[in-house]
Amino acid sequence: MNWSRMILDGIVVALVFNLTVGMFWLIMPNAYSSMLPKEIKNAAPKREKKEVALLASILYPLYILIFAYMIASAYQAGITGFWNMFWMGYIEMMFVNIGDFFGLDWFFRKKLKDKIMITGTEHCKAWETKEWMKTLAIPEHWILWPFLVCPLVGFICSVVGTLIR
What we know:
mainly alpha; elongated
């Protein structure tokens, strides 16, 4: 396994993912309301079809491009074998997870809360850092991602990667 390549790819993928999500969160905060803590989700106005479609048109291609990059990079680096590809995909997606946790859920939300706050949710306690971390960030990034999302990405990368070899 090529550790330096995996670390650099993980950093690149994390930056691309988190900067893209953060930029569009600033532009259209209500589109992300379904991904926020339950209290905010319930207080937020109903998302418009346009917002849902625009968010989908951003996130789905982003995920596909990230997977394609991860697989192509592993292929180009000569990474072979199901388990090597699996762990490379898993670890690179953990970089995205850690970047999302510290970058988006903690720093970005804390510093730009006024710009991403959805009209009508100003009274929600879930916007406070401690509550946000307790109700969303910690369960999502330290349970869901390591045990479901990252293994799934590792599996997809390893299956596709071994099929193209």
